[in-house]
Amino acid sequence: MLAIVFSLLSGIGFAIGLVISGMTNPKKVIGFLDIFGAWDYSLAFVMVGAIGTSFFLFRYFVKRNPVCGGEHFLPTKTEVDKKLITGSAMFGIGWGLTGICPGPGIVNLVTRNSNALIFVGSMIVGMIIYQIAEKSGVIK
Amino acid sequence: MESILYPLIGGILIGLSSSTMLGGIGRIAGISGIMGGSLKKPHKDESWRYAFLIGLILGGAILISFKPELFQYEFSFSGVTYVLAGLLVGFGTRLGSGCTSGHGVCGLARVAKRSFVATCTFIGFGVLTVLIKGMF
How far is the C-alpha of B58 from the C-alpha of B62, rounded, in Å? Predict the structure, then answer.
């Protein structure tokens, strides 16, 4: 039960952070990616704030057991492979096309804008296609 | 100064929320991973995923009811563009094991090599896409 509370609060805080920072505003994100045009560098400070905070808190928390018990579920892979590069490249193209990444996409559902809805719906379909491809052995 | 203040405060809030996940339940707050996992067969042990996703929508809902002016922006491209982008983002983040939150925030905070490569790749391709799109 406590795990649910932690996740819920974390989700709420994350969403508020995304909106306040400007990450949910597609125009602002495209401005950040437009470094050869009218570059809006302000969103770089989202990374500064987020990484700076987590860098120190992660180091603290990793040394201690999670409050809800159990272990840490941290990625163990260290090898840079084709899947990582290809997947990140595809994600980057999709991100650049509309200025929306997964978190802001979900938060923007509250605007009830039809294009925001279409984006999240298609994103879910994309994830399911990946899962089917992985399960059937097309992607190893 | 004000233009970087909000991104900075929002970023700190994102960092605190990611840390809450790690310190509370030992999980990485990677949104594409959490969402992808939630699309598999429902399982009781995975209920934290739904709680986090509901929290994301709840956080947005709270803000839009108190400060609707924060959402004064448009989704001005064609429907086809959103379909294509959604498919690429959904498939790509699963294939690449993460997105802006999992690789760009949590992974970089953990100084993970894979996340550094992933972040450079998706920002690079994002920049390239905006550049090419601007030519037409």
Answer: 6
